[in-house]
């Protein structure tokens, strides 16, 4: 998982700590000879309208066009539950992941581990505690290991700067923000640029 994607998932989660937040995971088009998937970016979706199918359909339509234009694939879904001790994918999360699986033939479901997040962002040795990976096995979403993070040291430094020092997570735009004001850019290109600038000097 890229630093850009990891940082933005955490920014989305921490911008709305008392809400269920969700988004889509993107990857550069896979090379046919490779079985590995690099989750290169994410699109934050919602923090107030979680579970509304109509809104998801609107977002999927727009994001699918964006992916086509930028040679990207929709490869998964992420969610952070509003309850601190709950990191289990709910029915809605599984349905969205099922839909992506049906369309793409492969899909990943990533849950933010709220309980493990504090230690994960303070110590790179605990970074694996931040997110939980699920894959569909025999028709059921089951917990799997295997998320490898790009440059953990630089990524955690970036999180410290963007979130804890500069509080720029409040500038992250999700689709709810975009629906409130269409001038809000759900692609978050300004955030991507900031993350890449910080990572580049580490």
Automatic annotation (TrEMBL):
GO CC annotation terms, alphabetical: EMC complex
Alphabetical list of InterPro entries matching this protein: EMC8/9
Domain of life: Eukaryota
Alphabetical list of Pfam families matching this protein: UPF0172
CDD domains associated with the record: MPN_UPF0172
Record protein name field: COX4 neighbor-like protein
Organism of derivation: Dinothrombium tinctorium
